[in-house]
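Annual report, structural modelling task.

Input specification for the coenzyme A complex:
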Amino acid sequence: MDFAKTTMAFEGSRVTLHTMEDRDATEQYVGWLNDPEVNRYLGTKHATIQELRDYIGQKDLQPNALFFGIFLKQDGMHIGTVKLEPIEPEKKCATIAVLIGEKTCWGKGYAAEAMQVLIDWCFRTLGFDEMNLGVIAKNAAAIRAYQKLGFREVKRDLGYVRYGDELHDQVWMTLTCPA
Ligand SMILES: CC(C)(COP(=O)(O)OP(=O)(O)OC[C@H]1O[C@@H](n2cnc3c(N)ncnc32)[C@H](O)[C@@H]1OP(=O)(O)O)[C@@H](O)C(=O)NCCC(=O)NCCS
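The model returned the following structure:
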């Protein structure tokens, strides 16, 4: 399986996903990544439109990554991103990461819905056995969303990430394909 230069779209009940394009690198998206409330538990603390364009282009060329925008079906508003990377067909697993950048859209289950669409595709279409993710232990909202999807903690690395002066623990979570 080689996902380089692959264009894909998915539909959930309230959101659509489509692979990110150059035109999706907007001021709005840059604004999310530069917002301390949004980037509190992210590795990225600052971004420019050009950096986003480069990142989208880089993901597009990678054989083992798919990077999607999350859009509201009702009005087409871009509210976040969800990424599969790495996709590991030989191990029948993929790692997933999500960002809901529009703060007015937090707490409405959009992260879980967007992830569920890709999890279903990985399990049902690709025949994968497992989905993995990593999250900062203090990111309670993210952990809650992942638990609701069935992810369970499998490992915890103490002091794994440094943001400024603070060291954060990292939680690794796994979801196994239901039999
Ligand atoms: C974390 C994030 C992905 C959650 O997305 P979301 O669409 O708001 O998540 P959901 O609505 O599916 O679920 C959030 C759950 O956490 C709960 N929650 C919200 N804030 C919380 C907090 N501070 N402590 C504990 N739980 C919290 C919500 O009540 C909800 O649970 P419920 O449905 O049982 O009420 C989103 O806020 C986000 O993208 N934040 C910025 C980037 C980020 O941190 N990404 C994750 C990196 S691993």
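The mean pLDDT is 97.
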